Amino acid sequence: MVRSFHPVIRRHRPLSHGALGVCIALCLAVSAIPTVAATAPAPPGTLAAFRTLDPLLDGLVPATLYRPAGVGPFPGVVLLHGCGGLGASIYAWGRWLQGAGYEALVVNSMAPRSVKSVCVVGGHPTDRDQALDAFGALEYLRTLPEIDPHRAAVIGWSHGGGAALEIASTTFVASALPAGGGFQAVIAFYPECTLLPRRGFSAPTLILIGSEDDWSPPQSCEAGVPPLLAAGAPLEWHLYPNATHAFDTPGSSRVLHISGRSFTLRYDAQAAADAHTRVAAFLAQHLAAPRPTRTAP
């Protein structure tokens, strides 16, 4: 559904270059606070900022934009971080997508809310807050001349994966009313499958999760996915044997202790490689450029 005169649209007023620069600087200053996931500084990229559809947040959401070589039009991909904020892995995914011909926008939902982490303890941003940020990012991408506004995907990890499942809900899209409609593809890495849509999917959805995930236990996916598939939902999922939470994040095996709970994180190179293959195939299938119409001779 295309929104024409919704109040959120009026919030997307143009900013002067000076005001935009100040807002980006302030947001980036907050985002520099170390987080659980911040293992490396953000690599070079184009700084961006946009207005979220979250009515409780009046400021700009900072992001890093990775534009591929060429002239476009490019499909866009919005990337959503986990509960500990941005880390090196999500930027690596952004660069990988850039190299594959997608314009990737890595969103920082923590900075404008002045928080470092919502792991276990909760608070804002919630998964719905992140989903509304993603819709704001989608509207921003659609203003860029090199972007194909009809080809966009969202990928979320953990907390961001939950946001991705919110985005996959037709009910949520109808309530948020992003200008130009929702995403054409949704990918969720190790999400809470209790957030699976129950009243219809807004887009084809892919879930990737490990069998040994003790942060987002896969049992809710194992219980929730089969009935949806039987009902014809546009849903795919893959369970990686022996893989834990954050299986695609390079680094040594570690156990995080947060608020009295413990979580195992272990990089699995084979699962990570397979995940890249599945993501590439899924995006190629659902964000393929339309074939030109041939005219009769």
Summarize the model shown.
This protein is an alpha/beta fold.
Please explain how this structure is put together.
The protein is 31% helix and 21% strand. It has 297 residues and is of the alpha/beta class. The protein has an 8-stranded mixed sheet, sandwiched between helices. A two-stranded antiparallel ribbon has the order 9-10. It has one domain: Rossmann fold, CATH 3.40.50. The two termini are 36 Å apart. The N terminus is likely disordered. Helix 4 crosses helix 5. The chain is globular. A hairpin with a 2-residue loop joins strand 9 and strand 10. The protein has 8 helices and 10 strands.
Strands of the biggest beta sheet: in what spatial order?
1-2-4-3-5-6-7-8
Q: What can be said about the biggest beta sheet?
A: 8 strands, mixed
Helix content: 25-40%
Q: Please state the second-level CATH architecture.
A: 3-Layer(aba) Sandwich
Q: What form results from the Cα inertia axes? A: globular
* Secondary-structure-derived class: alpha/beta
Number of domains: 1
Overall pLDDT: 86
- Runs in which pLDDT lies below 50 for 5 or more consecutive residues are 1-43
User: How many helices in DSSP terms?
Assistant: 8
- CATH superfamily grouping: Alpha/Beta hydrolase fold, catalytic domain
CATH third-level topology: Rossmann fold
Q: What is the H-and-E element order? A: HHEEEHEHEHHEEHEEEH
> Radius of gyration, Cα only, in angstroms?
18 Å
Strand percentage: 15-25%
Query: How many individual β-strands?
Result: 10
- Indicate the CATH class: Alpha Beta
Q: Report, as a whole number of angstroms, the end-to-end distance.
A: 36 Å
